[in-house]
Every structure is written in C-alpha cells, then in structure tokens.
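Our consortium's second objective concerns turning raw sequence data into structural hypotheses that experimental partners can test. To show how far this objective has progressed, the report includes one record in full. It was chosen at random from the queue rather than selected for favorable results. The single chain below, 157 residues long, was entered without modification.
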Amino acid sequence: MTEQISTFFTIDMIYLWLNIGVIPFWFILMFFPNSKVCGVFVSSIFPIFTLSVVYLYLVYYFFTSGYDFDQNFILYLGLDSLQELFNERAFLIIFWTHFLAINLFCGSWIVGDSRKFSMSKAIVFIPLIVTYFTGPLGIFIYWLIRIFYAKRISLYD
C-alpha cells in the first residue's frame, strides 16, 4: 500500500496539491472570516493537522529514500550554505510545506484576533493577502491597523 501511495504522490504532485489545497482556506479567511465554515475548517486544527500529515509523509519518504537530514544544519553556516541546501528537492518541498502551514496559521490568527476588536473584514483583507505572500510583513501591517482598534500599543497579549 505504501508503494501505491508513493507512486501517486510524487514530490511534484505533492507540491501541486499543497499549492492548490491551501487556496480554499485562504479564500474562506478572506471572504467569509465570520462564518461557521471558517471556524470549523480554517480556524481549527484541521488545516494544520492536514499539512502536518503531509510533512510527516515527506520526512518518512525522504528518510526511507536515504536523504541525509544531518546536512540540513548547514543552513546556519551562511547564505551560500543555505542556497546550496535549497538545491535539494527534499529540503525545498519540506520547507515549502512549513512555509504554507505557518502562513496559514498566521492568517487564521489574524482573523481570530480581528474578531476580538470587531474589525471589518474589508480592513483585514489587505493584511491577509500580504500574509499569504510574505507572512511577517502581513502580520506587521495587521499589527499597525490593530493599534487603532485596540487604542493601545501592546507588544504582547
């Protein structure tokens, strides 16, 4: 059975499904942030669990393929080492899965936090789009907008 799964779920197929698979979650976050569907499917553990299963499958797949995970630690040696590491398809797809999961989690957090301050979904729309593409910049833009709704600067919650 594992052979059949690995035959269908090639790295390129997983990459395609990951990119297509997160779009409905982002669509719901952007256009239906206060809906029950958003609460059940997007702002819950469901998308993170799904992406974690993919992540674990990739780690298992590359582990059984003989990938040397110890070489991943060269990313701390400098930009040239990081660039060399990004030439590895295994590291690249695992990194991409990580990136998608973290950005989706941040988008979900933005929607949940904006509900606390009764922010309009139109105002939160721009930070969500920016978070989808560039994570930290979108969170920073949301934080700047949030200051006006919270009427205070809070460095932590």
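The partners drew two points from this record. Residues 92 and 128 are 24 Å apart (CA to CA). The mean pLDDT is 89. Both points have been shared with the crystallography group to help prioritize constructs.
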